[in-house]
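Worked example 3 (structure in, sequence out).
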């Protein structure tokens, strides 16, 4: 039963220089962990993260709101789960993920909300034509909410290909 485990840590000092800076310097911290296992034609993956001041859902502290102008850091956490099954040259997959950001920059970016959450799942079919081209078909359902009234939902169908070179 082949598999992988991984973890990561980040400690990042953010110090904006120039006339457009609105944040005081601060230090961002985060960790991540994950694992992947393959059993016959099935593959399972689990991943999670948690951070303080790293930015909205780990996109980046300096550019994506790791803290508000008073230096209050954004708390971010999330996870991702995926299962796939391969039959010949075709792989079928299902994944689910959730990210949650609290406090810090969330109120200034999201109209006074103190919490922002996004969840999505994807159903996919991936067919390998050769070692260079894989055809892709995916359905994605995403929901975005804050603790203020209202939410946004998106349903997307994607068809295309991936080229490897």
């Amino acid at each position: 039963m082949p598999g992988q485990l991984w973890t990561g840590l980040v400690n990042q000092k953010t110090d904006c220089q120039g006339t457009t800076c609105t944040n005081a310097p601060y230090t961002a911290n985060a960790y991540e962990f994950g694992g992947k296992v393959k059993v016959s034609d099935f593959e399972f993956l689990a991943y999670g993260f948690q951070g303080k001041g790293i930015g909205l859902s780990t996109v980046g502290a300096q550019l994506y709101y790791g803290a508000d102008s008073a230096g209050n850091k954004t708390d971010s956490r999330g996870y991702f789960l995926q299962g796939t099954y391969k039959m010949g040259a075709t792989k079928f997959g299902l994944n689910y993920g959730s990210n949650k950001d609290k406090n810090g920059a969330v109120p200034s970016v999201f109209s006074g909300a103190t919490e922002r959450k996004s969840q999505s799942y994807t159903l996919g079919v991936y067919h390998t034509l050769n070692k260079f081209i894989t055809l892709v078909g995916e359905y994605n359902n995403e929901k975005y909410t804050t603790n203020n009234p209202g939410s946004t939902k998106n349903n997307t169908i994607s068809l295309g290909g991936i080229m490897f070179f």
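Notes: The first helix runs from residue 106 to 109. The first strand starts at residue 3 and ends at 14.
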